[in-house]
Protein 1
Amino acid sequence: MADVARRAGVSTMTVSRALKGGRSVKEETRTRIMRAVDELGYVLDLTAGALSSKRSGFVSVLIPSVNNSNFSETVHGISDVLSEDGTQILVGYTDYSKAQEQRLIETMLRRRPEGVIVTGGVHTEGTRELLEQAAIPVIETWDMPADPIGHVVGFSNAATIEDMMARLLFRGYRKIGFIGGDDGRANGSDDRGRERRLGYERAVAALGLETSHVVPVGDPPVSIEHGGRAVVRLVEEWPDVEAAICVSDLPAFGAIMECHRREWAVPGRLAIAGFGDFEISRFCWPTITTVSVSCTEIGRKAGHLMSRAIKGARSEKPLPPQSVVIPHSIIEREST
Amino acid sequence: MADVARRAGVSTMTVSRALKGGRSVKEETRTRIMRAVDELGYVLDLTAGALSSKRSGFVSVLIPSVNNSNFSETVHGISDVLSEDGTQILVGYTDYSKAQEQRLIETMLRRRPEGVIVTGGVHTEGTRELLEQAAIPVIETWDMPADPIGHVVGFSNAATIEDMMARLLFRGYRKIGFIGGDDGRANGSDDRGRERRLGYERAVAALGLETSHVVPVGDPPVSIEHGGRAVVRLVEEWPDVEAAICVSDLPAFGAIMECHRREWAVPGRLAIAGFGDFEISRFCWPTITTVSVSCTEIGRKAGHLMSRAIKGARSEKPLPPQSVVIPHSIIEREST
DNA sequence: CTGTTAGCGCTTTCAC
DNA sequence: GTGAAAGCGCTAACAG
């Protein structure tokens, strides 16, 4: 920067201002500086800038898995919005493990992110302490935590499945099973899946169904393969079953393919519904009835909220904890 | 760090050494320091460390899209390997646009990454200049560039489809079409798709087929939906067609689902093959014949190579350009 | 609109 | 095995 300043005949401070844009630099001076920058091939060093200004320009984002397009879309939404502020994203994958989440947060805090966005509302005690100590904005997404750490952008996973149950009952189904939604295990737990199963169970109780059946599928990530095996078990264990709700569209798809193999008509012999409105569900045959939640919207809303929260923190006017509820809808398709 | 040093009765230098691990600090001193760290809830500031040591601990990774699990797996592989060195990843999505790629690289270089990993072998002139100026290790992946920037971890996309063609011919198919693989367009081009189409065309010529037919699908990302429409066009335009190779498993899946709808038996009426060995292809009905390339392995190999290259750069012994070829294989399943 | 001064919080380097 | 001094490259804060 000193080289650029010398070449443009100004001080480094003026170069710094010119490069940050907008602020109080005469147009002619700016032009001269930009020319010097180009001629020298100068690239601003944000590391030094971050140290000096105490603004890293980073936000940490933690999601359970790489291979779930729902979470990827949320990250995309966050990234789109925050890149407008020049904020970059540090992504971490927890593999559905809360211990791994804590480890990642520990590592990431060393980069002094200006905010942290996590998935879900269940975390280790250590994670909560780290985040409180860090004294930066925190957003929990994809769920409505009972005791939020900071801000929330989510929805009730249980409510989505209650709605799905209501819809299936309305369509005349009475013997409805549920696939997925295990409790926590050694390798991590699928909290959102468990919530969805709770929604199923609450609906069974509330709607006065006399029978119900849950087929667990093991540790997350719940995948296509699990759905195929689970649907066979469901039908074997409960031959009267008329419909199955899967914890996600992936096992729903696996279940449908397995039904094709066994020549069980879908929805004739068994209706199948999923969760997440994955691309696959729109083009599968039959198309899959599902719960749609805009994952990108979760990300965009979280991004905007984080942007506001960071501005608040910078100006010593912290944003009071916000809670944004993302709407969901039931999309009925051919599989029910 | 000064607070920790005071509490432990040492200098900041000793704290720094203790925190970096391994190096010359008496065990007892280290214990004392760690206790102080815990008591104070101290978190090391890597930003300051990076500035001082001139080692950012970052590597930039650029991939075309969030929503392609193949690329995500490659990132996962890179991240797994590099996290062992304590290196963090800055991911950028180019949306298949070379201009966007250049913009992202410009932005990321401001963080002084110690290396850059890009997807594909075609880039803007500006990108090449930026990377050369930066004088850091560069790895191109997912292709075998004619004129590499630095290192390469990839495979020949054309060769994979030539192999697929040979296999289909061996199985008795003669009238084989190709879906996808457009040339560049306004919104970016799918270079790997184009390479695959070239492989198809080379095979058509080399194997002495008299007829061939390509159905383009438009700008990437090529998706499930495109496959459904394209297969209809293929059959309408070339009623004799016996088999179709798709540029990826996603359109192959879409094509198969569309065939189910129209009651065109797969592979009876039309055999369909894809590329990428996506999870969907293993569980779809019928299961999909595909080209398998280990995406995670591309990532792991690139990660290891980057690790070596960075160590080389640090010790002033630059690693000469390496070229790693990732093997591929044809997986025959029910769809052919 | 521009410049000067004084750090940001660490690590390098050299000395002991 | 440990410490003291001197920055890394930028920007905040204030002055003009």
Protein 2
Amino acid sequence: MNSRRPSPLPPPKTPVAAASPWRTNRERLRDRALKREAVIRAAAREFNRKGYHNTSLDDIAAALEVTKPTVYYYVTSKEQLLFQCFVAGVEQIRAAFRAVRELSVPARERLNAVLRHYGEAVASEFGWCMVRAEEQDLSPAMSRHIKSLKSEVDQGIRRLIREGIQDGSIEACDPKMTAFALAGALNWIAHWYREDQSLTGAQIATAFVTVFEGGLRPRRGALHIDARTRRRRARGTLAR
Amino acid sequence: MNSRRPSPLPPPKTPVAAASPWRTNRERLRDRALKREAVIRAAAREFNRKGYHNTSLDDIAAALEVTKPTVYYYVTSKEQLLFQCFVAGVEQIRAAFRAVRELSVPARERLNAVLRHYGEAVASEFGWCMVRAEEQDLSPAMSRHIKSLKSEVDQGIRRLIREGIQDGSIEACDPKMTAFALAGALNWIAHWYREDQSLTGAQIATAFVTVFEGGLRPRRGALHIDARTRRRRARGTLAR
DNA sequence: CTATTTCTTTACCCACGGGTAGGAATGCTA
DNA sequence: TAGCATTCCTACCCGTGGGTAAAGAAATAG
């Protein structure tokens, strides 16, 4: 079905998804920028559900109860659509960096704040697009642009780690690898969050930061069990 | 160019990529299974470079210096190709679980061993396919199969974490979220490893395990700096 | 009330790529 | 040497989907 439809428009059966300013709120939301934004959001949602390559522009148009050329009226190409979604997502993270720059707390706390926002951004509607926008799907120019934004975020995290090591709030470590580990864990949220929304983005982010901070190795003061039990359990004879 | 080529086969200009058993080693590698395997590997490499959707079967065939129908002689569909790559990758991880089951060491050490193998698998030639094989690109049947394999790995990690908490080798934590964080960090390696191969898979895995174990918060006995410096640095007045 | 701009549609183009039909080599068997 | 099986190729099919031309509807201007 290539942007075709039975001539008489199907009556808007359900009261429309509220994100579609066309047939509803016709008077107020006439503004062009708003419509464009709605297109981007609809694209994000569809990419989210079916992936970039499995989403056709007809799908996006259908989600907005519009036809394909209308989408093209607000956007020049599919790749631009993906790009805009990416930017919308990454902008949230950049904002987190800006906000944190003002705080006069140890770098680890600033890092934690950034990571929390990072996690929430990945769990947001643009998370998938932000995380999965691949250079391979984009023109060289946009690919470069995305790469530089990604790199900016990466460098920001590394910087906070270095500062944390300097001011003593972060254990000495390799900033590059550590940044990769942190960002990777958070990015991956986008992969499972759709399937498992039992927690909010903020809750996940908090849980992750807790893991990052403490690590797996038990800290002193943790509960102790007697040596015999521990040895037995370590053998793997633990009941299932 | 749809599997077409100038009639006289272009002379094999370069001495062939060694992974293509067709024109070289004609006698020995005549075995069918080997050829099929070569097809899978070639597919993995191409998916790696350009992504699943941006790789055509003509591309894969070309990489093997063969034509498309030949590929179809060894494989029934593109999605099966992806599926096989996935299985090849995940099998390495399952093997790690099996190997570790015999060890009588604390669960944290067993977990670390698994994570190290996990990381190496992700950095291997099948890593990308394993990590990025999405249900959306596959038939329902294969999608289910992949999901169950993924879930098996996930549950395996959670189990080791629970056991570690039990035997005291792992700090108390939420096994589910912790498993997500660990697996996410490792999975993400597939995204940047192609671009940055400055470390081997084993080195990366080791570095990551170090981060996971210790966490960011400085442990007692770490180096201390005097309180004044720390406060000053924490202000963000640190020279860049 | 006409003219012009803005927005949306119908109807179409066509490259790409997954997949196949059928035949030609090649080799193996008798 | 005929006959059968395996392997690979040439040539093709056709659905999908990104993208466009051009005309119609709706709003705005003059």
